[in-house]
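It is worth pausing here to work through a concrete case rather than discussing structure prediction in the abstract. The textbook approach is simple: state the sequence, then state the predicted structure, then interpret. We follow exactly that order.
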Amino acid sequence: MKKDIKKKLKDFWYGKPHKERRLGDLYIDKTGLYKHREWRGVKDTFYYFHMIWLYNYANLVVDVMKNGGLFVFAKGVWRYRWVGQTYITVMHWFDRGHEGMRGEALRATAWHYRAMTNETIRQFMRMFRADTKLNKGKQNEIYKKTMSHDETVCGAIFYPWRDKIDNVALQMIPYFVTCHVNCQTVLNYIDAVQSIGLPADPCPMCQAEAGIYVLDDYPDYSPAFVASNEACDGSVGTGILQDWFMNKPYFSMPQPMQFDDPLVHKHTMAEIEEAWKFIEEHMGIPFDWDQYVKYTEKFNKLTEFEWEKWDVAANTPYYPINGVAQALYRIYYSQDGYRDIWAQTDEKVRKIMHRCVENKIETFPETRHRLLAWSCAPLYYSFWTTWAYNCWGLNTVMNMDSLMFDMVLRTDTYENALDDLARYHEWAPMRRMAVGGYKHVFELWEYMKRFNCDMVMMYDQLACKGMQGIHGMFEDEFRERNIHAIWMPHALPESRTVSRAEIRRIINDYMFTVMQEEPLDPSLLDFDDSLSW
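Step two, the predicted structure:
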């Protein structure tokens, strides 16, 4: 009896140990929502309630007020369906990404989510303030000082004008971020573009981006547009539709596949200079070298801290950031370019990480296997990493797209700066290691060694013709190297092709039959979240 009381008091104060949590019992069937909040122990439960739930709810309002106010936000919600579908429900995204987490890992991961939410609000509020569709067809001053571009055109391209104009990626908010938060958001875009005759087999990412225009679900907030073809020819098709629907000055800045060729690299440098001339011409503001240097050097500091994080992740058990936060934050800030929120977040995370290292705090103590996730991830199920750790002890240490842009940009001379920026542009997410040739695709083995990983989660994007073409080569290499690799079929944002339940079943089957292991939390093996966000 005394033992039972002691145990209950201990569980109340510290939270149940990992193997007793039964997190799956918290779910309401089909919805993935909770019957009640997860009890993480007194300290972590109160931290989650005050510093994640209340703090972020309050700051969602503060961010909206700082960037245009509730009236502008309300107009955007009324006009664009993706706002209400996603950003009003954003705290459920926090819940899924932090499920089961405790201590310093909970804190560091939450700051990354906070930064992404803050920057997302800044971007869509900038869109709404400048949007002619919300301003009776008028082009206001904010419209004239905002540059729109593809989400795969890196923010560094616009540094020379950062003090005079702002740049906002058009598809980043309506498409890329939304399907991470709510897996139902972009399906209507895919259906819309297929309804006008596009076959179902091109990349669903490109279909969704094109469908935004078919349904007129995009803000008109800029005098001109800079496009790219990343990562494949499907993006070129998207570009054709974009150009047709937007009907405004449009510059295409390709990212070449054969970028290891010195002549191709010189061509990329020339393309960037042409893009700069295009921006000068249509924004009416000259190129400012000093601004480029200022923001590039600020961004370089983010990269240097990223390397510090990677070093801790690779060589210690003290890395306090879970797989989904690491991947999304890295992709978002490296593509978006320098913003103050990234530097502020890095300072907070640096303190937490140093504390973990100094005090030897094992942040993911139930790790059985260290995973490297390779190829392009399922956007509708980015939080599978949280589930995999809680259920099986699979710790996703690094993600392929996080490894793009792995360089410091020189600013000593214009020529060196342009040379490095071209390389940076060529190493965009999915371009270098997904369709950049077998040499870069097979960098997998080097990174497995670097991050001390013993397993690979091999993303199998069913509509990617490039990666499908070398499926067999990967299989041969895995066998020859005796590497455990789980193939995860998916269709980027298209959650109807392969369900999240099917992904979990594939992982479960591999862990039972090949690894012959038992789950840490059996309640997470099988549950229905078919109607979940």
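Step three, interpretation. The mean pLDDT is 91. DSSP finds 23 helices and eight strands in the chain.
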